[in-house]
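Final report, closing paragraph on structural work. Over the funding period we assembled a curated collection of sequence-structure pairs, and we close with a single example.
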Amino acid sequence: MLFSTPAFLFYFLPPVLLIGLFLKKEAQNVFLLLASLIFYAWGEGWIVLLLLASALFNHCFGLAIEKRNSSGKRKAWLIAGLGFNLSLLIIFKYAGFILANLVPMLRSTGIVISNNFTWHQPMGISFFTFMAMAYLVEVYNRSCPAENKFLRTALFITFFPTVLAGPINRYSSLRQQLAERETTAEMLSQGSRRFIIGLGKKVLLADTLARVADHIFAIPASGLTAPVAWLGAVCYTLQIFFDFSGYSDMAIGLGRMFGFTFMENFKYPYISRSITEFWTRWHISLSTWLRDFLFLPMAYSVSRRIKSDRWLGIKAESWSYYPSMFITMLLCGLWHGAAWTFIAWGVYHGSFIMLERSVLKKFIRRLWAPLQISYALLTVIFGWVLFRASDFSHAVVFWKSMLGFGQGDGREFHLALFADARLNAALLISVLAAAPLFPALQAGYAKLRSSSSAVGRCWLPMVCRALYLLFFAAVLLVSAVVLASGTIRPFIYFRF
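Its predicted structure, as stored:
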């Protein structure tokens, strides 16, 4: 079930919200767990049993880690728990990819096996397994105690706002909220507004941009020109941001309605001044997960084994940083999808991060701020082409067209074919919304209010409040109309 569907908006959310708000403590947890299982089963059917099994096994692994006193036994149970979660990913997400690459190698040695392996990938498996693994590591590191009540562990892993595409929350940050929370009128209002913003991002912006991006990325090499290729790349760059940040806004808003505070997932990533900064602003819950549970442990393990400041003439910190960063970003790409293009995309970003730390650091710092942003944004856009392309040859063709070496003559596919009023409006709003314009307006409003006369301070808030509410009502109404009359597109990150 998608957040941006009439089924969710009109049949699932209203009764769940209405009933859930009148329940207290454990009763609400029981109800939300049942609602979450129904939500997941709505689209995935029997695979909801896999989700429930994941919650049960991780609950047991957490208790086993907690009850062991010796570090060796604690580590053994941690490895078993991590192995269980990784096995789910390997079996349900990567088995087909592994076989597709393994079969040709085996055939060259005379071993013939079929590679017609198809297995349905459960929605959200990368997200709920990462949340479960983080929980086990936190228990092992004693960042939080193991949860004794299975109900709370299960709700943490299966909770419907986050189960499909995050944010990848930490159990330590939600532990107290799972035990005790209260939904106030202000929290309900905040959550509703955040949900509406996310819905508008998805339905009005991302889906409009997707229509053009999908069309352009399907154009054969013989028809691509530089302007059309750039339009497709820009549309996809904005689409993936508003698609995923829209989902995150809806998830955070839903959590707020039920008394939960989830971590933020985006912080205007397209105004970053470097790729390093980009990854502190883009998919923050994943980047911090990779930093805390993959990069830092690897880097620390390497640095601990190097006894001197230099080894083979290279600084010890370089030995710990660069290999760890390369592996982390490679696995980041693999996490996004079982394809070589995703792996290459991760290596692409990792390479720029390592270049920025070594040879580009001082050069970038000396650049004018708009040039820094332009460098980071262009690097990200070219990376998104690799991310979106069906294979490497498709990406190369697209890159060549963007650089002016395309094969198209502009007769069959040209800008006027795509640039209608709806797309132009979506592009304009998307560019403005991708920048921190709203915080700037808030700051300007606060300054204006403080400098206004007593009469102005009286009527100004009322006018602004009325316009504020009118804006949210308009976004909700237009989104509902579009949903009722148009095609519903799944969220991009659901396949990860």
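Residues 190-429 form one domain. Strands lie at 310-311, 314-315. We thank the funder for supporting this effort.
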